[in-house]
Amino acid sequence: VIVVLIVIGAVVLGLTLKSGFESTFLSRCEKFSQYDCKELWDLFQQAYVNKDPCNVPVEAYNPLIAAAPFKPQCNKMMFWSKTKDVVHGFTAKRKDCFVTLEDTLLGSVLDDLTWCGKEGSKDTFTTGCPGWSECENNPVRSFWICASAAFADVACGDVTAMLSGSINTPFNPESIFASVEVPRFKSPRIKKLDVVMVIQKNAISNCNHSSLKNLMQALDKGITYSCKDVSKSRIQECGAKPEIACGACW
Ligand code: AVW
Questions:
Q1: Which has the closest alpha carbon to 45: 33, 56, 35, 54?
Q2: How far is the CA of 141 from the centre of ligand 1 (A)?
Q3: How many A from CA of 211 to the centre of ligand 1?
Q4: Model confidence pLDDT, tens digit, residues 52-111
Q5: Structure pTM?
Q6: Over the range 146-165, which residues count as b (16 or more CB within 10 Å of their CB) and which as e?
Q7: CA 151 to CA 133: how far, in whole Å?
Q8: Which of 18, 42, 57, 104 is 20 to 30 A (C-alpha) from 27?
Q9: What is the DSSP string of 25-89?
Q10: Is the ipTM of this complex over 0.85?
Q11: 134 C-alpha to ligand 1 centroid (Å)
């Protein structure tokens, strides 16, 4: 009898205990009201669970994104490449100015997480998953490509992108910004792209960098381009001083 009870107990526990990953997903999700987080968790899992972790296509996340679609927020949408910390440090304080993908429900729920499934298992794993470029169709990379595409698809008005002056190729064709987002910027829905080059002491490039010519050429005809070199300290100052108007930050 005791053995039977222990077995039943273990099974019940196994069915009800949430993994740390699921708890993180749900608790981050619940900070946004109006969504059924358990439903989103189920749709999320369906994209990669019980699959070879190198065989999760970008489209696998379409049902998830359809259930929590990105809202167009004209003139406030912020893109970035290799400037994650500066951008999020800023947008966390100035939600009145800009929204990034990582400030939306799905972006914030999955930010900085790693996950994958395994053939023959209904579990979510957080270790032993393929690295970002280990195989193309890995669960993490496919999610960020799918989400970035959907976020760029609804961009409108004047959009902003923060690029890094501390790297050799601020507009890198391999980046999500260049390969997924810029190609979806369409006139007349988008009027203007404002590039902010984040300049630190160690800067090696700025708005004059040749890769930005490629950005200009990649832009849909009809979208105006601008670029400004802005020091990291000025961006931080604007984050710290809500009295500075968004339009006066740089
Ligand atoms: P990024 P993107 N390993 O700074 O233009 C793990 O290069 O590509 O900028 N994760 C990675 C790797 C890697 N090697 N490379 C990229 N990532 C993930 C969404 C990681 O989460 C927004 F809308 C890293 O923080 C931006 O406009 C993120 O991709 C645009 O995509 C960005 O890498 C930035 O993509």
A1: 56
A2: 9
A3: 18
A4: 999 999 999 999 999 999 999 999 999 999 999 999 999 999 999 999 999 999 999 999
A5: 0.93
A6: bbbbbbbbebbebbbbbbbb
A7: 22
A8: 57
A9: HHHHHTTSTTS-HHHHHHHHHHHHTTS-TTB--GGGGHHHHHHSPPPP-TTTBEEEES-HHHHHH
A10: yes
A11: 15
Tokens 């200009």, residue? 216
Closest-CA residue, ligand 1 atom 25, reads 84
Q: Is 179 in the pocket of ligand 1 (CB under 6 A)?
A: no
Please check the confidence at residue 122 and state whether its pLDDT lies above 60: yes
Whether the bond between 188 and the residue before it is cis, its omega within 30 degrees of 0, is yes
Atom of ligand 1 nearest to the CA of 174: 8
Instruction: State which of 80, 129, 174 you would mutate to test the pocket of ligand 1, scoring each by most atoms of that ligand within 8 A of its C-beta.
Output: 80
Question: Is a pLDDT exceeding 70 seen at residue 16?
Answer: no
Is the CB of 176 inside a 6 Å radius of any atom of ligand 1? yes
pLDDT of residue 8: 59
Measured by CA distance, the residue closest to atom 34 of ligand 1 is 81
Q: How far is CA 128 from the centre of its chain?
A: 22
The whole-number pLDDT of residue 18 equals 82
Nearest protein CA to atom 27 of ligand 1, as residue: 79
CA distance 87 to 93: 10
